[in-house]
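Narrative summary of target 7.
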Amino acid sequence: MKKGIHPENYRLVAFKDMSNDHVFLCRSAV
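Modeled conformation, tokenized:
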């Protein structure tokens, strides 16, 4: 992971629910 791009090394991750095609956005500190 490149540092200095996202504040506090957080990145936005999208999870797609295959059952209803809903997309969930959450912040991951990975």
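The longest strand covers residues 11-17.
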